[in-house]
């Protein structure tokens, strides 16, 4: 029964060459050939176990009977845990969620979800169940979100059970996964990670498995019969993958579960119950992509018997909106919040004015994707641009864009300076067309193919590659080797197995490509390169713990192999542009939904530059970018000076006002002083007149004084004469007094003699 397929178009490099495939030839492994007719377009990779030793030890054999839930040895695949920390046994409620998809762009939303889940669990004294796809990218985990997640879980106190999803698993058997660091950060007494089918707390826990045989064995065990519920991460046929897309490649539910079985699963992001079954997809806790637009999310509360008790609505992170018209957009704007993403498809014709709407959306902090339906046909804006000069191409482009004369003149000047400066010109690479037609692909010890396998790649057209399970179980054929067979020629010619959407390459490390049971392996491609016989062989050899690789190139019987593998790869690159094969010859699963229209401007130009000589335009862009950078630096310098001057203006204004005030005060004092001086001048003039009058009077007085002096001299002379007369008079008076005293003395004496007083008058 057909249970999976990979549709791979093979296109010749340089011109379209449809290649029709023959069935896989592997007589050593006992693989049967298909007959001619319709089956001739199929290559069967999934054979019975007795005829498929080439699948390698990493892939479990598929069961022979999927209608029975029990199979021999089934109990050994289920691990039974009877003892566990008491906190797990005492939980009466469990909060279940799934598909967190932690990555750099979603880390803040994921942290919000985790904190809310823990808050709800703590409030309810409940445990937590997680059903896979905790991380978005398997393998190497980004350091920043990893550290934030580990720090968050180091603070968790509630018990948690986790199973791994396909995004969490690293090894093909699923037992090596990226959930173990979480258990280490939180502590094994709080977080239990089940990496294999496990019976715990009366529930069967089934982590993701690429091959359903192991799941069937677990479901067929006697232990699973006692499970009250099943927790898993699976792809079920008929489930709604996203809005409008139903799974058609998943496992049919009646092959795995009884209709009455209670099943909770992760994997698909839309919350749902698969019709006619007991399978319930919990859905992602936030809208991870635009395909989940309009979906409501919730946490599911389970009781200790694993039945649904309640749903807790949850609304974190950006919401996504698919809009069909401007009216729909306008009605949505008021309900927007920061970081919401809106996708609006506009008709290919019309002049819808969206500027005002875009401003409203941006003001809300949301993001708007505008896409016009492509027109049926379009012409190149500049015909035969590759044959025109740089100046002519630029001039025509400027005319289309409506650039001003100043811009055109400036651009032409830059181009002429560039062309005149020989030291700066890098000649455009020669783009030579090559036609590669594959004839035969041989490989051994490569991936899951241990023994020699070969298939024809000549004149096969479009081929549907499928896997067949002879047990007719309808199980998935993942890891059967379909992709390995398809990537073998790409790996042989380029050294890598695929190219991712972000442009990085999956290099196909030797340790991963060499079969586990093989000491050596190789892939050999034979074909025609521009009509010449080409044989390329890339080999791997185990040497101790190391894996050595080599590359051989034979063209028309001439050995072009160089001393080193890198030098030989350079020969291949020069012959057929090997780095372009992943864009012209092989389209892997990572590029299945990635078109040129989805690339950023830079990524699109990088892709175009691989086949179109854009080196000179890149050089000119670098020159313009440098000029723009220099101009920006000069502008920023002048702007800084302007800001400095503007910053100084207030203080200078203050100083100016202070100076003006001081000037006015000084002017007032000057005017006052001038007025006083004018008054003083009048007073001085009056005083001068007075002084002159006084001087005249003084002269008159001087004359009088002289006259008086003469008079005084006369008076003084007369006074001296009078003084002399007075002196003589005084002498005469004194003599008279003396005579009087003598007379008085005589009288006293006589009086005493006569005894009576004598009174002198």
UniProtKB/TrEMBL annotation:
InterPro entries: Calcineurin-like_PHP, Metallo-depent_PP-like, P-loop_NTPase, Rad50/SbcC_AAA. It comes from the Eukaryota. It holds the Pfam family Metallophos. The keyword Coiled coil applies. GO terms for molecular function: ATP hydrolysis activity. Residues 443-719 form the Rad50/SbcC-type AAA domain. GO terms for biological process: double-strand break repair. Residues 96-237 form the Calcineurin-like phosphoesterase domain. Keywords: Coiled coil. The keyword Kinase does not apply. Residues 656-746 form a coiled coil. This is Calcineurin-like phosphoesterase domain-containing protein. It comes from Rhodosorus marinus.
């Amino acid at each position: 029964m057909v249970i999976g397929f990979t549709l791979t178009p093979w296109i010749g490099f340089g011109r379209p060459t449809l290649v029709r495939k023959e069935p896989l030839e592997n007589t050593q492994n006992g693989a049967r050939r298909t007959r001619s007719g319709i089956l001739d377009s199929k290559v069967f990779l999934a054979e019975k176990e007795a005829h498929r030793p080439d699948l390698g030890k990493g892939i479990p054999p598929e069961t022979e009977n999927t209608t029975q839930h029990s199979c021999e040895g089934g109990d050994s695949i289920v691990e039974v845990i009877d003892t566990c920390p008491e906190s797990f046994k005492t939980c009466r409620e469990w909060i279940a969620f799934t598909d967190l998809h932690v990555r750099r762009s979603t880390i803040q939303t994921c942290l919000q979800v985790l904190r809310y889940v823990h808050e709800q669990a703590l409030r309810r004294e409940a445990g937590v169940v997680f059903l896979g796809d905790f991380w978005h990218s398997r393998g190497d985990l980004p350091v920043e979100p990893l550290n934030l997640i580990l720090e968050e879980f180091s603070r968790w106190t509630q018990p948690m059970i986790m199973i791994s999803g396909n995004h969490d698993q690293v090894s093909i058997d699923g037992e090596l996964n990226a959930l173990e660091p979480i258990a280490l950060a939180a502590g094994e007494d709080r977080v239990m990670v089940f990496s294999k089918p496990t019976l715990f707390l009366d529930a069967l826990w089934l982590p993701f498995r690429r091959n359903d045989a192991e799941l069937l064995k677990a479901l067929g065990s006697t232990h699973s019969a006692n499970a009250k519920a099943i927790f898993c991460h699976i792809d079920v046929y008929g489930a709604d993958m996203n809005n409008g897309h139903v799974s058609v490649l998943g496992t049919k539910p009646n092959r795995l579960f009884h209709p009455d079985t209670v099943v909770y699963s992760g994997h698909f992001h839309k919350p749902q119950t698969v019709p006619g079954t007991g399978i319930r997809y919990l859905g992602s806790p936030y809208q991870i992509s635009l395909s989940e637009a309009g979906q409501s999310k919730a946490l599911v509360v389970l009781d200790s018997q694993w039945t649904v008790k309640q749903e807790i609505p949850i609304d974190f992170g950006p919401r996504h909106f698919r809009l069909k018209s401007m009216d729909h957009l306008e009605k949505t704007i008021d309900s927007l919040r920061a970081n919401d993403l809106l996708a609006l498809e506009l008709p290919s014709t019309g002049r819808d004015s969206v500027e005002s709407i875009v401003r409203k959306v941006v003001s809300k902090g949301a993001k708007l994707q505008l896409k016009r339906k492509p027109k049926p046909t379009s012409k190149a804006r500049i015909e035969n641009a590759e044959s025109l000069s740089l100046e002519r191409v630029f001039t025509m482009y400027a005319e289309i864009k409506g650039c001003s004369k100043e811009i055109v003149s400036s651009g032409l000047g830059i181009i002429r300076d560039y062309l005149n400066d020989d030291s700066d010109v890098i000649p455009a690479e020669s783009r030579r067309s090559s036609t590669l037609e594959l004839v035969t692909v041989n490989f051994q010890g490569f991936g899951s193919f241990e023994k020699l396998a070969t298939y024809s790649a000549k004149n096969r057209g479009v081929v549907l590659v499928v896997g067949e399970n002879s047990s007719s179980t309808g199980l998935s054929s993942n890891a059967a080797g379909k992709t390995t067979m398809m990537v073998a020629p790409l790996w042989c010619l380029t050294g890598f197995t695929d190219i991712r959407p972000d442009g990085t390459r999956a290099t196909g490390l030797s340790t991963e490509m060499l079969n586990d049971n093989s000491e050596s392996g190789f892939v050999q491609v034979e074909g025609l390169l521009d009509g010449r016989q080409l044989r390329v062989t890339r080999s791997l050899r185990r040497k101790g713990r190391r894996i050595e690789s080599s590359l051989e190139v034979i063209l028309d019987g001439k050995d072009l192999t160089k001393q080193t593998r890198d030098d030989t790869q350079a020969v291949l690159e020069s012959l057929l542009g090997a780095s372009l094969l992943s864009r012209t010859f092989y389209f892997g699963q990572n590029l299945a939904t990635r078109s040129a229209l989805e690339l950023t401007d830079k990524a699109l130009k990088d892709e175009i530059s691989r086949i179109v000589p854009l080196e000179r335009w890149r050089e000119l862009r670098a020159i313009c970018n440098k000029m723009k950078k220099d101009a920006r630096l000069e502008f920023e310098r002048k702007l800084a000076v302007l800001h400095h001057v503007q910053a100084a203006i207030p203080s200078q204004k203050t100083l100016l006002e202070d100076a003006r005030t001081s000037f006015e005060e000084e002017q007032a004092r000057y005017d006052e002083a001038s007025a006083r001086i004018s008054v003083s001048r009048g007073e001085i003039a009056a005083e001068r007149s007075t002084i002159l009058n006084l001087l005249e009077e003084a002269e008159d007085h001087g004359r009088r004084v002289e006259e008086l002096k003469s008079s005084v001299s006369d008076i003084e002379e007369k006074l001296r004469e009078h003084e002399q007369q007075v002196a003589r008079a005084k002498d005469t008076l004194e003599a008279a007094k003396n005579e009087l005293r003598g007379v008085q003395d005589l009288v006293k004496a006589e009086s005493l003699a006569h005894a009576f007083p004598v009174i002198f008058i």
